[in-house]
Amino acid sequence: MNLNITINGKPIPKARPRLTRDGLAYTPKQTRDYERSIKRAAIIEMAGSPLMDGAVCLDVQAFFPIPSSWSKKRKAMALDGTLAHTSKPDGSNVLKSIEDALNGVVYADDSQIVKSTISKHYSDRPRVQVTVSDEFAESTERNLL
Question: According to the model, what pLDDT value does residue 144 have?
Answer without folding.
Answer: 47
